[in-house]
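Page 47, continued from p. 46.
Same chain as before, 279 aa.
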Amino acid sequence: MSVRIATVNVNGVRAAFRKGMDQWLSQRNVDILALQEVRASTEDLEELLGPEWNILHDAATAKGRAGVALASRSSAEIHRVSLGADDFDTAGRWLEADYKIGDKILTVVSTYVHSGEVDTPKQVEKFKFLKAMQERLPELEAHTPYALVVGDLNVGHTELDIKNWKGNVKRAGFLPEERAYFYRFMGAKGEPVTGPDGSTGTGLGWVDVGRQAAGDVPGPYTWWSWRGQAFDNDAGWRIDYHLATPALASLASNYSVDRADSYDTRWSDHTPVVVDYNL
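Result:
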């Protein structure tokens, strides 16, 4: 059975629908839709998406901020929203759900990692979140061999993931200390890994489905600033991921970055990333 999973940071779901997100969604035959930066109520989501979708939504503690959701054609068996220690507020940033697909359990996570800002509390929170992710990924794979973390992870893994990487090595999103987590996430399972910051750790063996599909080429980028000519010049960042367990990654096909045809037809500063999983 083929399951089509799409993820997109909508940058406010109400605005995205006003700008044309519904037209994209009506054409893509998506089975599970992961949203980040929802910035709206569950009632808003239900009204915008309609009754044919089963909606799970974890809003942020601060109204009008963050918010993640999973919408699916068939309802989830169970969902979870906690990540990390009890005193760590991840509301609106991490939502897990288990779906029964034939005789398999598919776990999908919609996540929105902090954008961060160097030398501020925002960056401290981002590192806390990445550390909690590092601890959670092996638990997800132990729960089911078919696990998938999708969303805006706000880190470019390698130099291929940012058009102007040389100008961003000291900026949040491409800091060596952030990228080191991704080296561990996607390093060979159980093997020692050295990050670009010189730190060492153990590989978790997860697979970047986008890089698996595209190969070692620049991009394909998933985010462009609204400012200047970034979109027209394709001066983007690839920060929206399908991060899968090896068993699930081996079943992936038809990876697509649904880039808008033109600047004025964009409905978010991010683009949807869509993959079929042949379960």
